[in-house]
Structures are given as structure tokens and as C-alpha cells.
């Protein structure tokens, strides 16, 4: 096995998942708060748009992102003019694709957690002259901490397991866009089944641990209530 290539794919995957999760938590938190507490005609269409990656084939999303991120695309064109680089077949392009593809896995747990924050406690904070921003950070965020943990674990794990979107956007460039899922595909194509098995088993264990963590976090309050 090419150990250097393996570690390169592992490091690239970890970087991609970490950056994607951080961006999603920053961007997804206000979006989830609005979806949980806001009102208006746009709420339902936005909810459907956020959930779209759950039902849309990854190759479809990847195809349209590839067009948009290409040097002639509506996103890739201005980027190339400003930086001289390309978004397609690059790490930056993988980040954009991963953020869009993992969006519901971060926003939906946060939305559910924010929806469970009681209006009474927010109103009590308001009577103490806490500003809306102060109420959000001092009351809502602490009460929704389990939602944040679930969102972070799900977003990270889902990004690690991506295949179709990253293949369409980034291709299979070792050291640049070859994440673990692509590395497995590459080794199966080249009939290196032992290496593919080792990588697949590692992702299987990681996925199980991620789900075990989520279920433990979400069931803990019920366990306490039982006592």
C-alpha cells in the first residue's frame, strides 16, 4: 500500500470535513434559528431548499456545481478573474460542494433544537432587558447545545462519507482532491481490494462511532428523566 497516498487522502478528508463543518455551523445557525422561530411565506420554500440534498442524487448536484464552478461558470468565472485560479478540481471547490451537500445535516438538528427552546424563558430574559442578540447567545444557544453537538458530528461524518459530489467537482487528483471515498473507488478500479477493504473498514467503524455518539447524546436526557 502507498502509505504516503493513504495519509494524504486521510489528511485531505479531515481538512475538508473540519472546514465544512465550521462553515456550516457559522452559516447554518442563524438560518436554523430563523426556520425554527420565524414566520413568513418564504419559510416553507427555504426549508425545502435546505432539505433538497437529502433527496437529490449527488451526481445531479455535482454536475450543476461543476458548471457553476468552472472558469466559464457564474461562480468560477468571477473567482478566476479575481484570483487567477479555478474552483473546479480544487480544494476550495470541494468545500463549496460539501457545504451545500451537508447543509441539511447541520441545519435540521439545529432547527429542531431551537424549536424546543421555550418562549417563556426567552420572554423572561426580555423582561430583564436582554437584547435579542443577548437572548440568543445567553439563553437559546446554551439550551440548544445538544443540537449543536449533533449537528457538528453529523456534518463532519457526512462530509467524510461524500462521494458523488466530490468526484464530480474535484475528480481524482492525489494530494489535491482525492479524499478517502475517492481513494476507495480508485483502489477498487485498480483491483487493489485489500487496500479498499482496509479503507472501507475504517470508514465503517468511524460511521458507527459517529452514530453511536449522536444516539447517546440525544437519549441522555430521557435516561436522566427515568431516574
List keywords for this structure.
disordered C terminus, mainly alpha, 11 helices, 227 residues, 80% helix
Q: Can you walk me through this structure?
A:
With 227 residues, this protein is mainly α. The chain has 11 helices and no strands. It has helices spanning 3-37, 43-55, 58-69, 76-83, 91-115, 119-127, 132-143, 145-160, 164-170, 180-189, 193-226. The longest helix is centred in the N-terminal third of the chain and has 35 residues, at 3-37. It is globular. The chain starts with a helix and ends with a helix.
Summarize this, please?
The protein is 80% helix and 0% strand. It is mostly helical and 227 residues long.
What order do the helices and strands come in, and which of them pair?
Layout: H1 3-37, H2 43-55, H3 58-69, H4 76-83, H5 91-115, H6 119-127, H7 132-143, H8 145-160, H9 164-170, H10 180-189, H11 193-226
Helix pairs in contact: 1-5, 1-8, 2-5, 3-9, 5-8, 5-9, 6-7, 8-11, 10-11
Q: Calculate Rg over CA atoms.
A: 20 Å
Output mean pLDDT: 90
What's the number of helices?
11
Order of helices and strands: HHHHHHHHHHH
Distance between the termini: 51 Å
Q: In which range does the helix fraction lie?
A: over 70%
Strand count, sense and barrel status of the largest sheet are: none
Structure class = mainly alpha
Global outline: globular
Strand content: under 5%
Annotation, overall tally of beta strands: 0
Low-pLDDT residue spans: 222-227
